[in-house]
Design goal:
The structure is a homodimer.
Chain A lengths: L3 E2 L1 H8 L3 H9 L6 E2 L5 E4 L2 H14 L3 H8 L10 H9 L1 H24 L35
Antiparallel strand pairs in A: 1-3, 2-3
Chain A binds a DNA duplex (30 and 30 nucleotides) through helix 2.
Chain lengths: ~150, ~150
DNA sequence: CTACAAGTTCAAGTGAACTTGAAGTCAAGG
DNA sequence: CCTTGACTTCAAGTTCACTTGAACTTGTAG
Protein backbone atom coordinates (compact mmCIF):
# COMPACT_ATOMS: atom_id res chain seq x y z
CA UNK A 1 0.00 0.00 0.00
CA UNK A 2 2.54 2.60 -1.05
CA UNK A 3 1.50 6.19 -1.35
CA UNK A 4 2.41 6.25 -5.00
CA UNK A 5 0.87 3.96 -7.59
CA UNK A 6 2.39 2.39 -10.67
CA UNK A 7 0.74 2.76 -14.02
CA UNK A 8 -0.58 -0.78 -13.99
CA UNK A 9 -2.11 -0.27 -10.56
CA UNK A 10 -3.85 2.86 -11.74
CA UNK A 11 -4.99 1.08 -14.88
CA UNK A 12 -6.43 -1.80 -12.87
CA UNK A 13 -8.16 0.42 -10.35
CA UNK A 14 -9.59 2.86 -12.85
CA UNK A 15 -10.37 0.46 -15.65
CA UNK A 16 -8.52 2.75 -18.05
CA UNK A 17 -5.75 1.21 -20.15
CA UNK A 18 -2.16 2.17 -19.44
CA UNK A 19 -1.78 3.48 -22.97
CA UNK A 20 -4.75 5.75 -22.38
CA UNK A 21 -3.19 7.02 -19.16
CA UNK A 22 -0.02 7.95 -21.02
CA UNK A 23 -2.15 9.59 -23.65
CA UNK A 24 -4.01 11.60 -21.01
CA UNK A 25 -0.72 12.71 -19.55
CA UNK A 26 0.49 13.83 -22.95
CA UNK A 27 -2.68 15.91 -23.18
CA UNK A 28 -2.00 17.29 -19.69
CA UNK A 29 -5.18 15.85 -18.23
CA UNK A 30 -3.26 14.05 -15.53
CA UNK A 31 0.29 14.21 -14.18
CA UNK A 32 2.78 11.83 -12.65
CA UNK A 33 6.07 11.90 -10.85
CA UNK A 34 8.92 9.66 -11.87
CA UNK A 35 10.73 6.95 -9.97
CA UNK A 36 14.51 6.79 -10.27
CA UNK A 37 14.03 4.25 -13.04
CA UNK A 38 12.00 6.70 -15.11
CA UNK A 39 8.79 4.84 -14.40
CA UNK A 40 5.65 6.82 -13.69
CA UNK A 41 4.42 7.11 -10.12
CA UNK A 42 0.91 8.42 -9.55
CA UNK A 43 -0.33 10.22 -6.48
CA UNK A 44 -3.59 8.84 -5.14
CA UNK A 45 -5.82 11.81 -6.16
CA UNK A 46 -5.18 10.94 -9.80
CA UNK A 47 -7.86 8.27 -9.46
CA UNK A 48 -10.51 10.87 -8.75
CA UNK A 49 -9.30 12.87 -11.70
CA UNK A 50 -9.57 9.85 -13.95
CA UNK A 51 -13.04 9.13 -12.64
CA UNK A 52 -13.97 12.67 -13.57
CA UNK A 53 -12.58 12.20 -17.07
CA UNK A 54 -14.44 8.96 -17.62
CA UNK A 55 -17.78 10.32 -16.45
CA UNK A 56 -17.37 13.53 -18.36
CA UNK A 57 -16.84 11.50 -21.50
CA UNK A 58 -20.05 9.60 -20.82
CA UNK A 59 -21.81 12.92 -20.57
CA UNK A 60 -20.44 13.80 -23.96
CA UNK A 61 -17.57 16.19 -23.35
CA UNK A 62 -14.48 16.00 -25.53
CA UNK A 63 -11.07 15.61 -23.94
CA UNK A 64 -10.34 19.20 -24.81
CA UNK A 65 -13.41 20.37 -22.94
CA UNK A 66 -12.57 18.11 -20.05
CA UNK A 67 -9.10 19.58 -19.93
CA UNK A 68 -10.56 23.06 -19.77
CA UNK A 69 -12.75 22.00 -16.84
CA UNK A 70 -9.87 20.40 -15.01
CA UNK A 71 -7.85 23.57 -15.39
CA UNK A 72 -10.42 25.29 -13.21
CA UNK A 73 -9.45 23.20 -10.22
CA UNK A 74 -7.32 24.93 -7.58
CA UNK A 75 -3.69 24.44 -8.52
CA UNK A 76 -2.13 24.51 -5.09
CA UNK A 77 -4.23 22.17 -3.02
CA UNK A 78 -5.99 18.89 -3.43
CA UNK A 79 -9.49 19.48 -4.80
CA UNK A 80 -12.28 18.76 -2.35
CA UNK A 81 -15.81 17.56 -2.84
CA UNK A 82 -17.06 21.05 -3.44
CA UNK A 83 -14.52 21.66 -6.19
CA UNK A 84 -15.61 18.55 -8.08
CA UNK A 85 -19.21 19.42 -7.51
CA UNK A 86 -18.76 22.84 -9.04
CA UNK A 87 -17.28 21.37 -12.20
CA UNK A 88 -20.01 18.88 -12.86
CA UNK A 89 -22.84 21.22 -11.87
CA UNK A 90 -22.86 22.67 -15.35
CA UNK A 91 -23.34 19.32 -16.96
CA UNK A 92 -26.95 19.29 -15.88
CA UNK A 93 -28.31 21.40 -18.70
CA UNK A 94 -26.23 19.56 -21.23
CA UNK A 95 -27.59 16.25 -20.06
CA UNK A 96 -31.11 17.65 -20.02
CA UNK A 97 -30.82 18.79 -23.60
CA UNK A 98 -29.64 15.43 -24.75
CA UNK A 99 -32.38 13.66 -22.83
CA UNK A 100 -34.94 15.99 -24.33
CA UNK A 101 -33.69 15.23 -27.81
CA UNK A 102 -33.81 11.49 -27.20
CA UNK A 103 -37.34 11.78 -25.91
CA UNK A 104 -38.37 13.81 -28.90
CA UNK A 105 -36.82 11.19 -31.16
CA UNK A 106 -38.57 8.41 -29.34
CA UNK A 107 -41.99 10.02 -29.41
CA UNK A 108 -41.97 11.30 -32.93
CA UNK A 109 -39.63 9.17 -34.94
CA UNK A 110 -42.08 7.05 -36.79
CA UNK A 111 -44.43 9.96 -37.32
CA UNK A 112 -41.77 12.02 -38.95
CA UNK A 113 -40.18 9.38 -41.11
CA UNK A 114 -43.57 7.96 -41.99
CA UNK A 115 -45.11 11.33 -42.69
CA UNK A 116 -44.68 13.52 -45.68
CA UNK A 117 -42.87 16.43 -44.12
CA UNK A 118 -39.28 15.32 -44.53
CA UNK A 119 -38.09 18.85 -44.16
CA UNK A 120 -35.08 17.83 -42.19
CA UNK A 121 -33.88 21.39 -41.97
CA UNK A 122 -36.83 22.55 -39.91
CA UNK A 123 -38.20 19.36 -38.40
CA UNK A 124 -38.42 19.47 -34.63
CA UNK A 125 -36.95 16.02 -34.45
CA UNK A 126 -33.84 16.71 -36.41
CA UNK A 127 -32.86 19.48 -34.01
CA UNK A 128 -30.11 20.91 -36.18
CA UNK A 129 -28.38 23.17 -33.69
CA UNK A 130 -27.51 20.33 -31.39
CA UNK A 131 -24.64 18.76 -33.23
CA UNK A 132 -22.27 18.96 -30.27
CA UNK A 133 -24.56 17.13 -27.91
CA UNK A 134 -22.62 13.97 -27.52
CA UNK A 135 -22.78 11.70 -30.49
CA UNK A 136 -19.05 11.84 -31.09
CA UNK A 137 -17.44 12.93 -34.35
CA UNK A 138 -20.26 11.73 -36.56
CA UNK A 139 -21.50 13.73 -39.48
CA UNK A 140 -19.87 17.01 -38.67
CA UNK A 141 -21.97 19.05 -41.03
CA UNK A 142 -24.89 16.68 -41.20
CA UNK A 143 -27.28 19.54 -41.19
CA UNK A 144 -26.58 23.19 -41.46
CA UNK A 145 -24.91 23.58 -44.82
CA UNK A 146 -28.34 23.81 -46.35
CA UNK A 147 -29.96 27.22 -45.78
CA UNK A 148 -33.50 25.87 -45.85
CA UNK A 149 -35.23 22.48 -45.74
CA UNK B 1 -40.89 19.08 -60.43
CA UNK B 2 -39.31 16.14 -62.23
CA UNK B 3 -39.83 12.69 -60.84
CA UNK B 4 -36.09 12.18 -60.45
CA UNK B 5 -33.88 14.44 -58.40
CA UNK B 6 -30.31 15.52 -58.93
CA UNK B 7 -27.74 15.12 -56.22
CA UNK B 8 -27.76 18.79 -55.36
CA UNK B 9 -31.53 18.79 -55.04
CA UNK B 10 -31.39 15.84 -52.70
CA UNK B 11 -28.59 17.50 -50.76
CA UNK B 12 -30.58 20.69 -50.38
CA UNK B 13 -33.80 18.96 -49.39
CA UNK B 14 -32.22 16.54 -46.96
CA UNK B 15 -29.55 18.78 -45.52
CA UNK B 16 -26.98 16.07 -46.21
CA UNK B 17 -23.92 17.04 -48.26
CA UNK B 18 -23.53 15.66 -51.76
CA UNK B 19 -20.26 14.03 -50.78
CA UNK B 20 -22.06 12.25 -47.97
CA UNK B 21 -24.73 11.05 -50.38
CA UNK B 22 -22.06 9.54 -52.63
CA UNK B 23 -20.52 8.00 -49.55
CA UNK B 24 -23.84 6.49 -48.50
CA UNK B 25 -24.26 5.07 -51.96
CA UNK B 26 -20.81 3.51 -51.82
CA UNK B 27 -21.88 1.90 -48.57
CA UNK B 28 -25.10 0.72 -50.25
CA UNK B 29 -27.33 2.68 -47.91
CA UNK B 30 -29.01 4.43 -50.83
CA UNK B 31 -29.14 3.87 -54.55
CA UNK B 32 -29.47 6.01 -57.65
CA UNK B 33 -30.10 5.61 -61.32
CA UNK B 34 -27.96 7.33 -63.87
CA UNK B 35 -28.82 9.90 -66.47
CA UNK B 36 -27.28 9.49 -69.92
CA UNK B 37 -24.53 11.82 -68.79
CA UNK B 38 -23.54 9.54 -65.94
CA UNK B 39 -25.03 11.93 -63.40
CA UNK B 40 -26.95 10.44 -60.49
CA UNK B 41 -30.74 10.63 -60.53
CA UNK B 42 -32.57 9.88 -57.32
CA UNK B 43 -36.07 8.52 -56.99
CA UNK B 44 -38.23 10.44 -54.54
CA UNK B 45 -38.38 7.76 -51.81
CA UNK B 46 -34.65 8.22 -51.26
CA UNK B 47 -35.51 11.24 -49.16
CA UNK B 48 -37.34 9.10 -46.65
CA UNK B 49 -34.44 6.71 -46.57
CA UNK B 50 -32.05 9.55 -45.89
CA UNK B 51 -34.31 10.84 -43.15
CA UNK B 52 -34.17 7.41 -41.60
CA UNK B 53 -30.38 7.39 -41.77
CA UNK B 54 -30.07 10.80 -40.18
CA UNK B 55 -32.42 10.01 -37.31
CA UNK B 56 -30.90 6.63 -36.71
CA UNK B 57 -27.53 8.31 -36.36
CA UNK B 58 -28.98 10.67 -33.78
CA UNK B 59 -30.22 7.66 -31.88
CA UNK B 60 -26.69 6.32 -31.90
CA UNK B 61 -26.60 3.63 -34.58
CA UNK B 62 -23.52 3.24 -36.75
CA UNK B 63 -23.86 3.29 -40.51
CA UNK B 64 -23.26 -0.44 -40.53
CA UNK B 65 -26.15 -1.03 -38.17
CA UNK B 66 -28.31 1.33 -40.17
CA UNK B 67 -27.45 -0.61 -43.31
CA UNK B 68 -28.53 -3.82 -41.63
CA UNK B 69 -31.85 -2.24 -40.68
CA UNK B 70 -32.45 -0.91 -44.17
CA UNK B 71 -31.82 -4.34 -45.60
CA UNK B 72 -34.92 -5.49 -43.76
CA UNK B 73 -37.12 -3.31 -45.90
CA UNK B 74 -39.12 -5.08 -48.63
CA UNK B 75 -36.99 -5.16 -51.75
CA UNK B 76 -39.69 -5.16 -54.39
CA UNK B 77 -42.04 -2.41 -53.34
CA UNK B 78 -41.81 1.05 -51.89
CA UNK B 79 -41.76 0.82 -48.08
CA UNK B 80 -44.88 2.11 -46.40
CA UNK B 81 -45.47 3.76 -43.08
CA UNK B 82 -45.75 0.41 -41.33
CA UNK B 83 -42.39 -0.76 -42.69
CA UNK B 84 -40.62 2.29 -41.35
CA UNK B 85 -42.45 1.99 -38.09
CA UNK B 86 -41.30 -1.59 -37.62
CA UNK B 87 -37.66 -0.60 -38.07
CA UNK B 88 -37.64 2.20 -35.57
CA UNK B 89 -39.77 0.37 -33.03
CA UNK B 90 -36.69 -1.37 -31.70
CA UNK B 91 -34.95 1.89 -31.05
CA UNK B 92 -37.19 2.51 -28.10
CA UNK B 93 -35.30 0.37 -25.64
CA UNK B 94 -31.99 1.65 -26.87
CA UNK B 95 -33.10 5.20 -26.33
CA UNK B 96 -34.51 4.32 -22.92
CA UNK B 97 -31.22 2.80 -21.83
CA UNK B 98 -29.30 5.86 -22.87
CA UNK B 99 -31.76 8.16 -21.15
CA UNK B 100 -31.52 6.06 -18.01
CA UNK B 101 -27.76 6.31 -18.07
CA UNK B 102 -27.86 10.06 -18.51
CA UNK B 103 -30.27 10.36 -15.64
CA UNK B 104 -28.09 8.22 -13.44
CA UNK B 105 -25.13 10.38 -14.38
CA UNK B 106 -27.04 13.52 -13.62
CA UNK B 107 -28.32 12.39 -10.25
CA UNK B 108 -25.21 10.78 -8.92
CA UNK B 109 -22.24 12.32 -10.61
CA UNK B 110 -21.02 14.56 -7.88
CA UNK B 111 -21.69 11.96 -5.24
CA UNK B 112 -19.61 9.39 -6.98
CA UNK B 113 -16.69 11.55 -7.94
CA UNK B 114 -16.77 13.29 -4.60
CA UNK B 115 -17.10 10.10 -2.63
CA UNK B 116 -14.48 7.56 -1.85
CA UNK B 117 -15.74 4.62 -3.85
CA UNK B 118 -14.05 5.22 -7.15
CA UNK B 119 -14.46 1.62 -8.10
CA UNK B 120 -15.15 2.44 -11.69
CA UNK B 121 -15.47 -1.19 -12.59
CA UNK B 122 -18.52 -1.75 -10.41
CA UNK B 123 -19.93 1.72 -9.91
CA UNK B 124 -23.55 2.03 -10.97
CA UNK B 125 -22.77 5.25 -12.70
CA UNK B 126 -20.02 3.97 -14.89
CA UNK B 127 -22.33 1.33 -16.34
CA UNK B 128 -19.59 -0.64 -18.04
CA UNK B 129 -21.66 -2.85 -20.32
CA UNK B 130 -23.09 0.07 -22.18
CA UNK B 131 -20.21 1.01 -24.40
CA UNK B 132 -22.22 0.83 -27.60
CA UNK B 133 -24.90 3.18 -26.39
CA UNK B 134 -24.17 6.10 -28.62
CA UNK B 135 -21.07 7.99 -27.63
CA UNK B 136 -19.34 7.38 -30.95
CA UNK B 137 -15.90 5.83 -31.30
CA UNK B 138 -14.54 7.20 -28.08
CA UNK B 139 -12.56 5.07 -25.69
CA UNK B 140 -13.31 1.71 -27.22
CA UNK B 141 -12.07 -0.27 -24.27
CA UNK B 142 -12.55 2.45 -21.70
CA UNK B 143 -13.75 -0.07 -19.23
CA UNK B 144 -13.76 -3.79 -19.53
CA UNK B 145 -10.14 -4.68 -19.97
CA UNK B 146 -9.84 -4.72 -16.21
CA UNK B 147 -11.33 -7.87 -14.67
CA UNK B 148 -12.32 -6.18 -11.43
CA UNK B 149 -12.66 -2.66 -10.08
C1' DC C 1 -17.50 28.55 -79.85
C1' DT C 2 -16.47 29.64 -75.34
C1' DA C 3 -17.61 29.89 -70.42
C1' DC C 4 -19.12 28.10 -66.57
C1' DA C 5 -21.68 25.43 -63.39
C1' DA C 6 -22.62 20.91 -62.05
C1' DG C 7 -21.57 16.58 -62.14
C1' DT C 8 -18.14 12.35 -62.21
C1' DT C 9 -14.21 9.08 -60.05
C1' DC C 10 -10.48 8.03 -57.18
C1' DA C 11 -7.08 8.70 -53.75
C1' DA C 12 -5.88 10.86 -49.82
C1' DG C 13 -6.83 13.75 -45.75
C1' DT C 14 -9.45 14.88 -41.18
C1' DG C 15 -10.41 14.57 -36.13
C1' DA C 16 -11.17 12.21 -31.90
C1' DA C 17 -9.40 9.00 -28.81
C1' DC C 18 -6.77 5.82 -28.43
C1' DT C 19 -3.90 1.30 -29.61
C1' DT C 20 -0.07 -1.13 -31.41
C1' DG C 21 4.57 -2.13 -32.49
C1' DA C 22 9.45 -1.54 -32.35
C1' DA C 23 13.34 -0.83 -29.77
C1' DG C 24 15.30 0.01 -25.56
C1' DT C 25 15.93 0.36 -20.06
C1' DC C 26 15.88 -1.51 -15.42
C1' DA C 27 15.38 -4.58 -11.26
C1' DA C 28 14.78 -9.05 -9.44
C1' DG C 29 15.07 -14.18 -9.69
C1' DG C 30 17.27 -18.53 -10.91
C1' DC D 1 24.93 -14.31 -16.80
C1' DC D 2 20.55 -14.58 -18.64
C1' DT D 3 15.82 -14.21 -18.73
C1' DT D 4 11.47 -12.32 -17.46
C1' DG D 5 8.34 -8.72 -16.65
C1' DA D 6 7.21 -4.14 -16.08
C1' DC D 7 8.14 -0.11 -17.71
C1' DT D 8 9.89 3.69 -21.18
C1' DT D 9 9.58 6.60 -25.81
C1' DC D 10 8.28 7.48 -30.43
C1' DA D 11 6.11 6.76 -34.72
C1' DA D 12 2.57 4.86 -37.06
C1' DG D 13 -1.88 2.47 -37.31
C1' DT D 14 -7.17 2.11 -36.33
C1' DT D 15 -12.18 3.32 -36.59
C1' DC D 16 -15.97 6.13 -38.03
C1' DA D 17 -18.11 9.23 -41.01
C1' DC D 18 -17.14 11.91 -43.89
C1' DT D 19 -14.52 15.88 -46.69
C1' DT D 20 -11.23 17.60 -49.90
C1' DG D 21 -8.60 17.85 -53.99
C1' DA D 22 -7.19 16.66 -58.58
C1' DA D 23 -8.36 15.64 -63.03
C1' DC D 24 -11.96 15.04 -66.06
C1' DT D 25 -16.77 15.15 -68.62
C1' DT D 26 -21.40 17.11 -69.65
C1' DG D 27 -25.18 20.35 -70.17
C1' DT D 28 -26.74 25.02 -70.64
C1' DA D 29 -26.32 30.10 -71.60
C1' DG D 30 -24.64 33.75 -74.16
Amino acid sequence: MADLLTISEVARRSGVAASALRFYEERSLITSERAGSGHRRYARPVLRRIAFIVFAQRVGLTLEEIGAELDKLPPNRAPNRRDWSRLSSQWGSRIDQRIAELERLKRGLTDCIGCGCLSLGRCQLANPGDRAAGLGPGPRYWIGDAPLG
